[in-house]
Design goal:
The protein is mostly helical. The chain contains seven helices and no strands.
Length: about 160
């Protein structure tokens, strides 16, 4: 499943880097919004990633960069809280893991502050290019990691 997610990210970021952009009208946004939310929930449950298709939807409705970042922040925060509840209700979130996750908030906050300062100094076009290059890199990493984890299993089957 993670290879599929990575492939979607690579495809989506690649077409945007080549100048093709998915643009939704307000009418399409109205009926696609709940579907995108449902699909995001399903992808998050299966992969732990909050990107597909939530960020794609937010970008397609044409939010300016500051609003896009705020919307992504809200999406990631709500998704993280929902994921934490789901993990805890299934006894996967221990006190130790909760403490480690909480400790990771400090470097994340520092990164957000630095990112905010950089974002204010660059043009919207450069911001979007950096955004899609980051998504492309993330997708490629996911695909490579998924393939690397499959190789030992394939070798083992071949040797039998």
């Amino acid at each position: 499943m993670s290879a599929l997610l990575g492939t979607v990210l690579v495809f989506y970021s690649s077409i945007n880097l080549y100048g093709y952009h998915l643009i939704l009208t307000q009418r399409q946004e109205t009926w696609l919004g709940p579907l995108a939310g449902l699909a995001s929930g399903l992808f998050t449950c299966m992969t732990g990633s909050f990107v597909v298709p939530g960020v794609m939807f937010l970008q397609a409705i044409g939010l300016p960069r500051e609003m896009l970042n705020q919307a992504m922040g809200m999406l990631f925060t709500l998704s993280t809280v929902a994921l934490a509840f789901a993990l805890e209700s299934n006894n996967f979130l221990t006190i130790e893991l909760g403490a480690l996750s909480s400790a990771a908030l400090l470097p994340a906050a520092v990164g957000m502050i630095i990112g905010q300062r950089i974002r204010k100094k660059i043009s919207e076009q450069i911001f979007l290019r950096m955004f899609f290059i980051s998504l492309l890199s993330l997708g490629a990493y996911i695909v490579i990691h998924a393939l690397n984890s499959l190789l030992p299993k394939l070798k083992q089957k071949h040797l039998k």
